[in-house]
Fold this protein.
Amino acid sequence: MKRREFLTSSALAGAGLPLGMASVSLASCSTGEQEKSVPSKTFTPEELGMYSFVDIAPDGKPLKAALVGCGDRGTGAATQFLKAGPKVSIIAMADIFPDRMDGSRKILMEQFNNEVPEANRFFGFDAYQKVLAMPEIDVVLLCTPTHFRPEQFKAAVEAGKHVFMEKPCAVDPTGIRTVIAASKAATAKGLTVITGNQRRHSRAYWEAYVQVRNGAIGEIVSGAAHWDQGAWWNKKQRPEWNDMEYNIRNWFNIKWLSGDHILDQAIHNIDIVTWFMGIRPVRAVGFGGRAQRLTGDIFDFFSVDYYYDQNRRMLTTARQIDGCDGNVSEQVYGTKGMFTSNGPVRLEDYNGNIIWQYDRSKPERGDYEQEHIHLVESIRLGKKINQAEDLAYSTLVAILGREAAYTGKSITWDEIMSSDLRYGPDKYELGPLPDYHEGVAPKPGQAPQPAS
């Protein structure tokens, strides 16, 4: 909760983690480093890294997984993992609250006859460490509130586990650098890392991406990413909950835990445009505020302008207010036409003529299930996939936009990448959080105050 000095001159060198690797050097791409938007050759799907889209993962060695974070999303991820292929099981669980684990364990037992032994159920902020210490665990599903993900991912890689990591992967630049360094270590160890930006596991998006990379809409000049919907869930504090318990149970509405909804939801759309454009922004200017939210300390709405080299742009909007128009989609604009997911995934020219449209008659599994099929398939076939770094950079694009909106300032990519900004307490324990103030959201135009 202590909002530290935001824009610093600190260098990234030395910010890597002690994972037996050299320090990581990161910077925004210059014009000369960016790949051209229009290819000089035609790429096959395989050359671009397109995944297979089999209906079920292949048989093979039994895979034993641990679920870290037993809330609704964690339980959903566990059920999708169990559907992915034969000989997969959840044998351990970690959470802070027994009621969350009990509910999750009951679903796994009733729907899949998957029983987690009492000895393999761990509670507390260090519960994930106990799970990772189990040598029989092959895969760990990281589904806690986002704030905890960087350190848990780092620990999973150090333990040599394959990982499913929910999106987004961090709430601040400090966490992003942790994820990037751990991702490089995972690659060196030959580990599979699948992330929860499930649109990257959609056949429709992949086929559109191949078309765009092969020049179907010409040179890319701009993009748009939108997640605009009604009010989302919230929980009011109960007398029996201390501050930390309330924050975690209401984590989506707490900025140090979720990173705000521009991260937790709009990351999906930002990730697609970032993927299709293939470049990182130079700077961002943002707007946002809090109008109707009932709990927590995050915004209701964002609008962010991202600026890229060669005068390219991306607009991102994110809104959670009832009674307003909804729009969850992405657009990428080229010199000859556009990609859009508003309606059927398709490419159009600027007269409205269809250049290409995804054939929705093709049978396929849902994206949430497909990402776990890819996880199991990657491990069993030895075709390693590591999506962590891509997710880290897309998440940092969202963080850049959020901080531009929070501060009302134009912030550059290099500033956000090297910033020592960190959200959250230094010590994790159930009890009071004196630096958390319910309903007090950031105020644009007011510089962050040093911690007292």
Q: What stands out?
A: The radius of gyration is 21 Å.
